[in-house]
Amino acid sequence: MTDENNDLQSPGQMFYYKQTAAKTQEKWMFWLFRIATYIILAAATFLFGVIIFKGSQTVFQANFPFVNWEFLSSKPQTLYVFEVDGEEMKLPDSRYREFIAEHPEKTPDEVDTYSYSGGGIFPAIVGTVLLTIGSMIIALTLGILSAIYLSEYSKPGTFINLIRLSIVNLAGVPSIVFGLFGFGMFVIFFDWNVSLLGGCFTLAFMVLPVIITASEESLRSIPQGFREGSLALGATKWTAIRTNVLPYALPGILTSSVLGVARVAGETAPIMFTAAYALRDNLPWQGLENPFQFFFQGVMALPYHIYVVSSKIPQNEYTERMQYGTAFVFLIIVGAIALTSILLRIRMRKRYKW
Amino acid sequence: MADKLEHTPFTAESIQKKGDGFLGVEKALLIKAFFGGNALVAIIVLALITFFLFREGIEFFPQYRAEMQLFRESGQEFVGLVKEEVDQFNELQGELQDVQTKVITKLYDEGKEWEEVTALTKPFQDFVREAGASIQPLSKVVKEATTIAVGAKEKVIEYNIRKGIEGMDPSEFGFDSDEQADAFLVEKRTELTAMLPAIQEANEAFRVGLTATLENVPTVELPEAQLALDAYVKKAKKFLNKVTDFEKKLESYDPNKPFTMGQTIGGFLLGADWITASSWQDFYGIWPLLSGSLLVSVVALSYAIPFGIFAAIYINQVASPKEQNFIKPYIEFISAIPSVVIGFFGIAILGTFIRNASNWAFLSWLPFFPISERLNAYTAGTLLALMAVPTIFTLAEDALNNVPKAFKEASVAMGATRWQTIWRIQVPTALSGIISAVLLGFGRVIGETMVVLLCAGNRIAVPDLSKGPGTFFEPVHTMTGIIAQEMGEVVPGSIHYRALFCVGIFLFFLSLIINYFAQLVVRKYKISAG
């Protein structure tokens, strides 16, 4: 025993660190947990990295204007690959026709065509945006009204337990079952065929539990005093809700619902048979006979497009560009929505403390 | 005025504000009813889902029963018993023939001449031919019987279809009435059962022939061929033992027994075949799909449970606030990654990586490596783990968070280390919440569609557990995957269409049951912080 150790055992140094077996075990276990946690993050980061790295090659380019607008603003086309004057040319369908019209003498003898590999994804972006907006309008309306009842009017009892049970169970129903249901109800029974409206309703029903839970939480976080103050001045219950609860809860409801938007935009299975087309020439607002037809037409959608180009068509060296490009754009859109939701909620938590 | 006020008794009603009502109902009540009606939406949606799934799906059972009944009545089932024997043997034979082709091609590739190759492979080729010839008489009889049975069935199906179309005279298609069709079936069936002696004879000839062939196995100088030959002989001997079983089944077969509803439902839930658009008979048994789903779930959960729970403990107990503020939102963000993107990542990167990894030299001691398919249950399972981790993590973290602080303080005060406190106090206290988290993670995995559709390989077969861990590297098909894949191609109203809805019903109730148990666990084992 050295002097130092003697020193530690003097009355002034009672709490010296002693390495015991239990403490060693603790250290190892904590490292195990730490590593497990960071592996999860690393796996996700790797996934993002690959898709962003490869996808950005399609969406961005080295020369001005740096963004490949053609990919973002045109529809998917067949890619024509051919040789002219010993030079390999890759042109999408429409540009190929222009080229032939301009230089009839250069018409190649041999042309390889690759479906879906040329052009861009504009109709799919439009379709996803329309589906998301439509379903969120439906889901927010139904969800907020339902949440108002649950938070403001309901009294504990069988009825309310039943509703809560349904919400929890609805949240666990697989998305493909929603797809089947939407097909059976909207496509077959209502005879809407594959339609934007059918897809919107299916997605809205799927996301309802998220919206109801989020809205109710926001409504409940409004202090009871707000309601009581209004009621004490002689307002009816509805007036109290309208003037003293909803205005303060609404920002919270909307922020929490953004996560629902990410879910709606990201789902494939529910729209597979209810709303999505693999390829559609017209944009949703083109070639309509009457305004109602707008809602009863199928649309292209980004997630379904990824599915189609990554597994339904023959793979070749040119499809990869389309696959990664679409996945990149899709991931950026959904990721941006999700990030907004997460950041907004963190801010909300800090700001509102009644 | 003043008089009136004095005389009004002071009750609760008199100070209540009278709103302008509608049809005598008070406005406030109407508003309440309006919101109440909207609150019902969750119940209504659940009811609608149930209703429409059943509306489209339930018809499947009577239809399938009728089809199986006809399958039996036309004598197809009877023939099927022998046909299975022939098919199984042909499969065995096919494997051997593949080896033969491979060996010969290889010899030619080595630059050998025709004479040389023939000389080298002659004993092998002779054996293959001889073994193949032994089944010939049996397969001839079976072919004959198959033609009769399928012909009879098709005729009756045709009649049934025409019968349903208005303005068509069914007698043009063979029968005047249902009775006549039935009589026709009975006649054909008798014809088929009368073939039993012929079948037995051919079967006996096959047995004798194959036994004789197997006794004179040649030795080949090509190691590859010899290996295949030995394996074949072993399998063929096993097969010979089964031949008598097939015969016994034939003898005891009674085609007049009706096909009951119980058998139909049992055939759907436990049937080992999901065969569609077949020229022989379509079968709709979800066992291969269910077992595929379970296999993928096992892989996914074996990753997601430890990772999710470890991360939850780490964030809740160990991590610094700075780490918490970064990691928690990040994992939440992971849950927002669209499943189709994860599936695409599996096809493009992970599947190929796993297959390449299985070729690495230092892993060659594993008996099931290298693997041949890049898309298999393991690929899908690992990706699904990434989707299940956020679910398990979030809920398990919540459960740990709900453990009363006093528990921890008491434990630490007694001199326990933080790890001992976590492991012996906090985790056991939060166990019900953690189990419920795992159950909900399982629900998420089994209901996920796009990842399994893209990455599980989509081969419909009951996983062969005899391969040990190698089973996990086999391509499988899943319940969600089959709906997504086949729904777009079926005719609405057909039996196949209804079968897919029945798979949906099964999935729907499975998810309800999982949810129920998740809630039950939480409710039943909730600790009271007293």
Strands in their spatial order, largest beta sheet of chain B = 1-2
CATH architectural group of the largest domain in chain A: Orthogonal Bundle
Assembly type: heterodimer
How much β-strand is present in the residues of chain B?
under 5%
Spell out the CATH superfamily of the largest domain in chain B.
MetI-like
Q: How does the helix and strand content of chain A classify structurally?
A: mainly alpha
Radius of gyration of chain B: 33 Å
From the spread of the alpha carbons, the general shape of chain A counts as globular
Into how many domains do the coordinates of chain B divide? 3
Helix content of chain A: 55-70%
Q: What are the segments of chain B in which pLDDT stays under 50 over at least 5 consecutive residues?
A: 1-5
Q: Outline of chain B, from the CA principal axes?
A: flat
Task: Give the total of beta strands of chain A.
Answer: 3
H/I helix tally of chain B: 21
SSE order of chain B, one letter for each helix or strand:
HHHHHHHHHHHHEEHHHHHHHHH
Secondary structure: helix percent of chain B: over 70%
Structural class of chain B: mainly alpha
* Count of all domains of chain A: 3
N- to C-terminal distance of chain A: 60 Å
| Physical arrangement of strands within the biggest beta sheet of chain A | 2-1-3
Characterise this structure.
- The complex is a heterodimer of chains A (354) and B (530).
- Chain A is 66% helix and 7% strand.
- In chain A, helix 5 packs antiparallel against helix 10 (237-266), helix 6 crosses helix 8 (196-220) and helix 12 runs antiparallel to helix 13.
- Chain A has 354 residues and is mainly α.
- In chain A, strand 1 (76-84) and strand 2 (87-92) form a beta hairpin.
- Chain B has helices at residues 2-7, 12-15, 27-39, 41-57, 60-73, 76-109, 114-134, 136-164, 178-193, 196-215, 223-251, 261-270, 287-318, 321-334, 339-357, 377-401, 405-413, 418-447, 450-455, 479-486, 495-524, and strands spanning 274-275, 283-284.
- Chains A and B meet through helix 2, helix 5, helix 6, helix 7 and helix 8 of A and helix 3, helix 4, helix 13, helix 14 and helix 15 of B.
